[in-house]
Design brief:
CATH class of the largest domain: Alpha Beta
Mean pLDDT: 93
Helix content: 10-25%
Radius of gyration: 19 Å
Strand order of the largest sheet: 6-2-3-4-18-17-16-10-14
Shape: elongated
Structural class: alpha+beta
Strand content: over 45%
Order of helices and strands: EHEEEEEHEEEEHEEEEEHEEE
CATH architecture of the largest domain: Box
Number of strands: 18
Low-confidence stretches: none
Number of domains: 2
Largest sheet: 9 strands, antiparallel
Number of helices: 4
CATH topology of the largest domain: Proliferating Cell Nuclear Antigen
Amino acid sequence: MIMKIKLDNATILSKSIDLISELVTEVKIKINEFGLSITAIDPANVAMVSLKIPKKAFSEFESGNESLGVNLDSLKRILKRSGGQLVLERKENLLYIQMDDRIRRNFVLSLINIESEDKEIPNLEYSARVELKSQDLIDCVEDCAVVADACSFIVKDEKFVIEAKGLNSTRTEFSSDEANINAETCKARYSLEYLQKFVKASKLTDKTILNFANDHPLKMDVRTESMELSYILAPRVETED
């Protein structure tokens, strides 16, 4: 079966690939009856990213089960040239990329062989779910990065707190008026180097969802009508002075 898929808005894929390339250099793009998906783990085994673009987001979709190994830097550079419609078509070991805006342009990307097991985002148990304005989260993470290399997510007394402590410190508190907090009392600490990469995805939507628990991995979800981007981040478990 020929693989041919078409997006009327190339930006969906272009921005997603740009974000994923912050963590990994090559991925398997899976295309099947559900749509397009990518799941990858960063080289340090600290973070995981998952992208899902459902079949309904495509204006044309012909594909069996496909697995496309791609170098993300190469694909990112090509997709940054796109503006309007985007058509992806596989022919043997090549991916043909057609762009239609004012004129029709064509690129050909060589697919690569990636020897790795297929991955899935794990089903983890969480005691806290916080949905907050994306801009608030972005600001908090940037505040924390000014004073430390890790920050804590805390739920206590029905409030959500983001704080960081080094020689200097910062703390931001959210009540139920500013965030949707469904959580038990808990605290977990995470690397700001990774969080700064994650929150770039928050710019795609008004709200970001955080799931965490005591000294437990963080799951961060960014959802739009046409895609879902999820991140998993291992906690920093260490004693604080």
